[in-house]
Amino acid sequence: MSPAHDPATLQALRDAAALARLDLGGDEAERLCADVARILAEFELLQQVDTSGCEPMVAPLEARGTLREGGPEDSLPRDELLALAPRSDGEHYVVKKAIGGEA
Amino acid sequence: MSPTARAWHDLDAAQLALEHARGARSVVATIDDCLARIAASNAGLNAFLALDAERARERARLLESTARAGAAPGRLHGVPIAIKANQACRGLETNCASRMLAGWRAPYTATAVERLEAEGAIVVGATNMDEFAMGSTGEHSAFGPTRNPWSVAHAPGGSSSGSAAAVAARLVPLALGSDTGGSVRQPAAWCGIAGLKPTWGRVSRHGLVAFASSLDCIAPLARGVGDLELALSIMAGADARDASCLPTPFAAPIALDGLAGLRLGVVAEWRAALAQGPARDLHEANLSALRAAGAELVEVSLATTRHAIACYYIVAAVEAASNLSRYDGARYGLRADEGARTLLASMSATRRAGFGAEVQRRIVLGTWAHSAGWSARWHQQAARVRTKVAREFAAAFERCDLLVGPTAPTPALRLGAHAGDPAAMYACDALTTPVSLAGLPAASIPAGLVEVDGARLPFGLQLVGPLEADMLVLAAARVAERVVCPEPLRAPVEEASS
To answer: Which residues of A touch B355 (CB under 8 A)?
Structure first.
């Protein structure tokens, strides 16, 4: 079945949106997932390519760059980075409570 | 020495730097006039999202005073440049054309930008783009579409829309974009200028906001190939802050007198991608001109590249879904968590409010294609097809030195032409994504004008080389630009504002 009409694909896309932390409303989620399912239907031909003998490519060239020595280095100033945070107390990032219920 | 009779914006970057260095032209005056030109035209083009006039003027004064004190001028002495809004320049707003990063000022500078500045370049501002570099028309910006200086009813191409429009309108002679699947070559073609995608890893990506890391390249745009070569030779080279950056010594520029002895592979599938009409006629005429200039044309086939769009959009979306997970409203950028009571609810509300529709589509596609149960069929298959595409390119290069073809299947599209049809928009990248998948260097050069849709619009020619053959691509492009388009194209918007 074409991904555009496959209920399992559409449900999997809705699940992916939730997994990706996109809090989409009902209609918005339906529209977006239907869009993606139509795109996948166009991409379906990819499945017919004979890829025997082809390893999956991770990057076009193997990383050949030199790595830095492991060790402490100067970092950007803490206050400058905290100033870019949506909310901070001057020493830490302030976020909603993650463990133990609502904040 | 007196300045040449020409205005600064009619000089290329290398010439302008030379006149500044000789004291024939004031850097401060150039920067003042550059900022005035941008102010006069930006409302119409929407090419710039942020300017840093104060910093630019301060750097201009500093460069003049250090030159007076005897400091050796750099190769871009006093040249105003623009950078895409996904590249860090300390203090400049780097918002990626997204509500998610609106107001975010970079606390450091990208290596590529740092190297250009070390040669005397002056960053005047950050340019508009498709949000997080996802788009082919420049319309997917949270701050409104960029317009094409050749026709404001047409798209400039994307995602480096503002950088291309700024160069085409002669607001700056040189700009940086980023090319993940064609985001520099395609807008260069649509705006009638030159653009280079270097070999993947040739230029450090430190300070480039990550979209799809195995594809992303920082890439220059200019009116001619000479400035692309200059910019690349300055930016290339190992960087301890990017382990994927090639450590090999960068080759010196190659001088080609002509095209004699050069075998150019004409990709049958790319040639066939052009519909009957003026663009196809122009392209065929350009191939004949290249042959007449001494090149040997060899027909080659890259059969798997017809799957490149599907392959690219799966691979890039998977990487984007991962890279964009960092926008959680906790450490930087937007937080839109009114009413959210938990950390997860805060993140989800922020990502819904901060990302535009195209970015959300790709995050969902990428998350899904990499999830258990679907990854083998989609992401892994796409990654295998990518290997096959790269092998076909390698086989083609056994028969020719470089490949040649159109940069895009069409000239610029009208704004809104593909609204609501993402797959149709993705098709704009059919001739650039194969090259990106294989990581190859490629230049797009202006190849003339075509009359389409009631407008005279530029069309581009793409030259593609084997991995790491950036200098050969540039050398051939330098000759080819004189063959197919001897006079630099001049956009009507620019003429009107001169």
So the answer is: 22
Give the chain A residue nearest B466 (alpha carbons): A60
| Sheet strands side by side (includes B174-178) | B48-51, B122-127, B80-84, B174-178, B218-222, B194-197, B442-452, B455-464, B402-406, B263-267, B296-300
Q: What is the pLDDT, as a whole number, of residue B496?
A: 44
Q: Which chain A residues touch B341 with a CB distance below 8 Å?
A: 96, 102-103
Helix, strand, or coil (residue B399) = coil
Percent of chain A with pLDDT over 90: 50
Contact status, residue B41 vs residue B493, Cβ threshold 8 Å: yes
**pTM value?**
0.96
Chain B: nearest CA to A5, how far in angstroms? 16
Active site residue B159: yes
Is A79 an interface residue toward B (CB < 8 Å)? Answer: no
Task: Mark whether B151 is an active-site residue.
Answer: no
Residue of B nearest to A96 (CA): B343
B84 is catalytic: yes
Tens of pLDDT along B317-356? 999 999 999 999 999 999 998 888 999 999 999 999 999 9
Interface of A with B in 16-35 (CB under 8 A): 16-17, 19-24, 32-33, 35
Among residues B136, B159, B161, B444, which one is catalytic? B159
pLDDT value at residue A101:
64
Please state which of the ranges A31-35, B116-120, B182-186 shows the lowest mean pLDDT. A31-35
Which of A101 and B315 is assigned the larger pLDDT?
A: B315
Pairs of CB atoms within 8 A across A/B: 193
Closest partner residue to B348 (CB to CB) among A23, A80, A93 is A23
How far apart CA B384 and CA B376 sit, in angstroms, is 10
Q: What is the pLDDT of residues B134-159, one digit of tens each?
A: 999 999 999 999 999 999 999 999 99
CB contact under 8 A, A21 and B329: no
Q: Can you tell me the ipTM of this complex?
A: 0.93
Please write the tens of the pLDDT for every residue from B17-54.
999 999 999 999 999 999 999 999 999 999 999 999 99
DSSP for B159-203 reads SSHHHHHHHHTTS-SEEEEE-SSSTTHHHHHHHT-EEEEPPTTSB
Residue burial B25-48, b: 16+ Cβ < 10 Å; e: rest: bbbeebbeebbebbeebbeebbbb
What contacts 24+ positions apart, CB below 8 Å, involve B51-54? B51/B124, B51/B125, B52/B89, B52/B91, B52/B92, B52/B123, B52/B124, B52/B125, B53/B124
